[in-house]
Amino acid sequence: LRFDEKVRVVVFRSEVKGVFCAGADLKERAKMDDAEVGHFVKRLRNLMDEIAALPVPTIAAIDGHALGGGLELALACDLRVAASSAKMGLIETTRGLLPGAGGTQRLPRCVGIGLAKELIFTGRQIDGQQAFSMGLVNHAVPQNNEGDAAYQRALTLAKEILPQAPFAVKMGKLAINRGMEVDIASGMAIEGMCYAQNIPTRDRQEGMAAFREKRPPQFIGK
Predict the structure, then answer these.
(1) 192: annotated active-site residue
(2) Which tens digits make up the pLDDT trace of 69-81?
(3) pLDDT in tens, 13-25
(4) Whether 160 is catalytic
């Protein structure tokens, strides 16, 4: 996906009704020795980092339970849409663990340190509407009979992104992600570098021409 220029948005969904991702299989984990557990969790963390590093926008469509590593998967995405009835939580402390695939880092960056500590310390599960109220998800929608309301809303969101200039969207994502990790002055410099890369693009010229000619722009990602 990273190298396919035709890909504009990636939506993560589950085809298992009622479950987005239930996290690690603890029965499988129990059969591992300490070294194997460390290696397994490191691979999971690397996977989440690869998802977070995808250059295009990513959306998690949470139509059911997103627990432990399942919520960490959703947190690795840029945007999250949840059914109001969906259950999510970093429940690791209830099993003698702590989040190990990015949860301790991405959750506080998403909802703030205080809420993240509360959710991780207690291992509490929350529903989609609660997640929306604290900013954990971008949208919470009532579940439908097919059980894919979050997926349908995610598709609508993806279709809002699709017409926009692909390279500009990629640079916007890069500027936000890199800028959030540094001080504001360094972030401004990162924005400037990303903007400079966008200036010579054909899409920028198309956007300006379309504005002058009062027509919708036709972006090609070049």
Answers:
(1) no
(2) 999 999 999 999 9
(3) 999 999 999 987 8
(4) no
